[in-house]
Amino acid sequence: MPPARPWARAAHRLVLLAAAGLVALAPQGGAAQTVDQQLAMLPYIPLRDNLTRYQQATPVEVPDDARAVRTALIRAMKDFKIPVENEKDENAVLLGTTRMVKSRELNKEPLSSYLSCGNGVQGPNADLFRLTFAFLAAIEPVAKGTKVTFFMAGEGRSPEGVSTQPVVCWTRGVLEKRVADRMKFYLLGG
């Protein structure tokens, strides 16, 4: 029988992994891990599959080093009220949250601006359902600077009962673009 709240369990396991230092930019073995290696460490397979399958934001490359990008990215996420669960881990590659629960709006905008969960009789499910989603950004050093790849996916449940099946929600790419633009602004000295 599948877990009743897979997102909660997955989030808890990732937080424990991050706290244990398993999700790190430079593991003690030496070489930096790739985004795929980091995503492979997410314990709940459908979560990992949804993050890679529904990721729509084009990776952003900037000429700055990974440490500067990390600092600017954390500031940008906080501006959009996105928790950074592993902010204190300076070696973390995946920054953000694996479990953000919201209803109706985020940053004073309807959730349907950011996520698509299908439509119901009363309109977009993202604006009517209680959504649980992950918002992660992976930082990777590249030849000419740093690449940041955003991942956002989740699920929504109708507030009309606890036994309803969740619907899959996927990103529209809007929040990722806004966070990336704010990150670039901070990198330019803003």
Question: What features would you describe in this structure?
Answer:
With 190 residues, the protein is an alpha+beta fold. It has one domain (32-187). It contains 6 helices and 10 strands. The chain has helices at residues 6-19, 35-40, 45-53, 66-79, 125-128, 174-187, and strands spanning 60-62, 94-103, 105-106, 109-110, 115-116, 119-120, 123-124, 130-142, 145-157, 167-171. Helix 4 packs across helix 6 (174-187). Mean pLDDT is 75; it is low at 1-31.
How is the main sheet built? 6 strands, antiparallel
Total count of strands: 10
Gross geometry:
elongated
Topology pattern, helix = H, strand = E: HHHEHEEEEEEHEEEH
Return Rg in Å: 16 Å
Tally of structural domains: 1
Low-confidence stretches: 1-31
The proportion of residues in beta strands is 25-35%
State the end-to-end CA separation.
Answer: 50 Å
Fraction of helical residues = 25-40%
Question: In DSSP terms, counting alpha (H) and pi (I) runs of 4 or more, how many helices?
Answer: 6
Helix/strand-derived category reads alpha+beta
What is the element layout, followed by pairings?
Layout: H1 6-19, H2 35-40, H3 45-53, E1 60-62, H4 66-79, E2 94-103, E3 105-106, E4 109-110, E5 115-116, E6 119-120, E7 123-124, H5 125-128, E8 130-142, E9 145-157, E10 167-171, H6 174-187
